[in-house]
Design brief:
Elements (H helix, E strand, L loop, with lengths): L1 H4 L4 H4 L36 H15 L6 E4 L2 H12 L6 E6 L4 H8 L3 E6 L9 H7 L4 E7 L11 H10 L3 E5 L21 E6 L12 E4 L2 H10 L7 H10 L5 H17 L6 E4 L6 E6 L2 H10 L5 E2 L9 E5 L3 H15 L1
Parallel strand pairs: 2-3, 2-4, 4-5, 5-6
Antiparallel strand pairs: 1-7, 6-7, 8-9, 9-11, 10-11
Helix pairs in contact: 3-9, 4-5
This protein binds 4'-deoxy-4'-aminopyridoxal-5'-phosphate (PMP).
C-alpha cells in the first residue's frame, strides 16, 4: 500500500471528504429534517439510501466473487476512468500511457484533467500488446497505464500473463478495462487483485448485463484505492431508481443471452468474409467485430441507407479500412448481412 500511497495526488491524500447528510444516521425510520428534501413521499423525494446502495454493492460483489471493500460502483465505468485521473494525476505534470487504438475516453479524460497522454500503438494487424514499448514509454510521472481487454475496437483479449507482467513492472497504476470480459473465453485480471496493489480492474453492467441505460460501472482494486474513489466521487453518484432496478435485474441469468451473442458473433465472423466488400474480420473476444472493408465509407453509407448503423473506425490509426460492427439479435444480424450482400451487387 505504501508504494501506491506515493502515487496519489497530495491534495487527494489530504482530502477531507464531504460527509453526506445521512452518513451519521443508520436507522430506517425517523424524522428526516437534515437534507433539505421535500418531505412528501413520492418514492424519490429522498436522496438515495446508503443502505440500498450498499446492498447493491454487496450483491455485485457476491456475483463477482470479490470482497465488497474491493468494489466501487460508479455512474458507468466512465466515472471510474475519470476518477483514476482525478485521484492519481497531477494536472500539467503527470502522464498516462494508453494503448492505441482503444476506447476513446482514456484520452478524453486525460485531456479534461490536463494530463499528458502517451499513446503506444498496438502491434499492427495482430493488435498484440507492445509490452516493451509500453514500459519504455513510462517515466517517473506516468501514474496510469490503460489496457483494455478485450480491447475496443480491435476485439482481442490479452493474456493474464502479459497483464501480470505489466502490473509487476510498471511503477504506476495499471488500469485494465474489462467492459467486454463476459463475452471472452479468456480469464480476466480480477484474479491478480490480491497480488498487486497497483491494479484497478474496470467492468460494467452496460454490456453483457444489458443495463447501459442505468449507468452502473465497477472498479475493483485494493481497499485503499476503493476508499479513495469513494471519497472523490460525487456524494450520490447512483440514483435510487437505478439502484432498485439494478438489484431487480441482477437476479436474471444472463448466460443464455451472452451465449447467443457469442454464437452470433462467431457465425458472423465466419460468414462476413464471403462478401466481396469484406476483406477480413478480426477474431473477437467481445460482442462486436472489427471488419476490414474494400471501401469502408461506401459500405458504411450503404448500410446507413438500409437503416443499419455501424461505427466507422476507418480513420482511426491502426484501424484503417475498418468498420466496427456490434453483434445484434439474430434478426438484426440477418438484416446486416442482407445489407452487406446488397452492397456487393
Ligand atoms: N470501457 C469500454 C472499453 C467501453 O467500450 C465503454 C463503453 N462503450 C466503457 C468502458 C464505458 O462503459 P459504461 O457504460 O460502463 O460507462
Amino acid at each position: 500500500m505504501n508504494s501506491v500511497k506515493k502515487l496519489v495526488r497530495t491534495n487527494i491524500a489530504a482530502l477531507k471528504p464531504y460527509s453526506t447528510a445521512r452518513d451519521e444516521y443508520r436507522g430506517e425510520l425517523g424524522v428526516l429534517l437534515d437534507a433539505n428534501e421535500n418531505p412528501y413521499d413520492n418514492g424519490v423525494n429522498r436522496y438515495p439510501s446508503m443502505a440500498l446502495k450498499e446492498q447493491l454493492r454487496r450483491r455485485v460483489a457476491a456475483i463477482k466473487n470479490i470482497a465488497a471493500e474491493r468494489l466501487f460502483l460508479g455512474n458507468g465505468s466512465d466515472e471510474a476512468i475519470d476518477l483514476c485521473y482525478r485521484v492519481f494525476c497531477e494536472p500539467g505534470r503527470d502522464n498516462a500511457v494508453i494503448i492505441a487504438p482503444s476506447y476513446g475516453m482514456y484520452s478524453v479524460c486525460a485531456d479534461i484533467n490536463a494530463v499528458e497522454r502517451r499513446m503506444v500503438p498496438l502491434e499492427p494487424d495482430s493488435f498484440a500488446l507492445p509490452v516493451a514499448r509500453l514500459l519504455e514509454t513510462a517515466d517517473a510521472h506516468s501514474k496510469l497505464m490503460f489496457i483494455c481487454s478485450p480491447n475496443n475496437p480491435t476485439g482481442n483479449a490479452y493474456s493474464p500473463e502479459a497483464i501480470e507482467f505489466l502490473a509487476q513492472s510498471f511503477g504506476g497504476i495499471l488500469v485494465v478495462d474489462e467492459a467486454y470480459i463476459d463475452f471472452s473465453s479468456k480469464p480476466g485480471a480480477q484474479q491478480l487483485l490480491g497480488k498487486y496493489d497497483n491494479l484497478i480492474v474496470l467492468q460494467t453492467l452496460s454490456k453483457a448485463w444489458g443495463m447501459a441505460g442505468l449507468r452502473i460501472g465497477l472498479a475493483m482494486a485494493s481497499p485503499y484505492i476503493i476508499s479513495l474513489f469513494r471519497q472523490v466521487k460525487y456524494p450520490y453518484n447512483i440514483g435510487t431508481d437505478t439502484i432498485a432496478e439494478a438489484l431487480r435485474r441482477l437476479q436474471e441469468d444472463i448466460r443464455p443471452q451472452v451465449a447467443e451473442i457469442v454464437a452470433e458473433r462467431d457465425r458472423l465472423c465466419a460468414a462476413l468474409p464471403q462478401y466481396g466488400s469484406v476483406l477480413k474480420v478480426y477474431p473477437s473476444d467481445a460482442n462486436f467485430l472489427l471488419v476490414k472493408c474494400t471501401d469502408p465509407r461506401g459500405l458504411y453509407a450503404a448500410l446507413l441507407k438500409e437503416g443499419v448503423i455501424v461505427r466507422d473506425r476507418s480513420t482511426v490509426p491502426g484501424c484503417e479500412g475498418c468498420l466496427r460492427i456490434t453483434v445484434g439479435t439474430p434478426e438484426e444480424n440477418v438484416k446486416l448481412e442482407q445489407a452487406i450482400r446488397n452492397y456487393g451487387r
